[in-house]
Amino acid sequence: LQQNDQLSDAHLAKGIALMGLAIENISLKSMLQISQALDAIEVSTKRDPTYGYAWFTLGLSRGKLPLLLGGSKPLSFQCAQTLKKIDRAWGLALEGILQASFGTWKESESIFQEGLSLKSNTSLLVTAYLEALGGDEAKKALGVEGQKERLYEVAKTLLTKPDLNTHALESLGDALLSSDRPEEAWQLMQVSIPKFQESSLLKLQCAKISARTGIHLPEALELIEDALRGPIEGGSGGREGAYVRQGQILERLGKWMEAKKSFQQALEINPRHRGARENLERLRKKE
Hints:
Layout: H1 8-24, H2 28-47, H3 52-64, H4 73-86, H5 88-101, H6 105-117, H7 122-133, H8 136-142, H9 144-158, H10 166-178, H11 182-192, H12 200-213, H13 217-228, H14 238-252, H15 256-269, H16 274-286
Helix pairs in contact: 1-2, 2-3, 3-4, 3-5, 4-5, 5-6, 5-7, 6-7, 7-10, 8-9, 9-10, 10-11, 10-12, 11-12, 12-13, 12-14, 13-14, 14-15, 15-16
């Protein structure tokens, strides 16, 4: 930005970074950072009014934040309407997420179905649809068991979509796991990993399935170790998240000292990582 403040990408990156810092450490300072983040994202949309990802991020932020911190239901839906004119699939994905977050699940599901019928940006819509379906508002509308049944039904249908990316496949794995089908989730990851040159997200998903359910522990440990030898895909919780998963698997295997080392490695990367800290403290109490 110091070299060229006209770059919409740079303003969006600044906004996302400030939002991340604010969420990580809630304080008066973080409230200011959230305001600055929204300002930066808005500047991004003004620098390039056709920048769909900036409109998506702005609409999502406006929809998820409380009113005191800049949240606004009308402004979030305005972003969705603008985005639909730029890229209808992206706009419908945002609108579906917003409808779900505001408690109108039937409208949300109808919007996602419309988006999937467009046959463009399918992976984005699959990811957004399953995230919304797995959320609290869908649970309120469907009930716990009803949500599980619907997650499984939708996941099985979406599995037939061609050319899904790793993020969509990760979401399908989450849906199968949440609907009490961990073995199906595991097998989906196993089939999908060889299809991608960069598959750390799917390997970490295997580790998540194994850590939560105890299935395929030795195989999951090999996959997480392999993932840690290379770059970690964005959206996976980062390298620190990978070490936490490794520690959870090692603990299930009874290797407590090695598990502690993994949690410590996660904290070296991110001293604020709550999961790493809580797991490490719990293991220390067992000594």
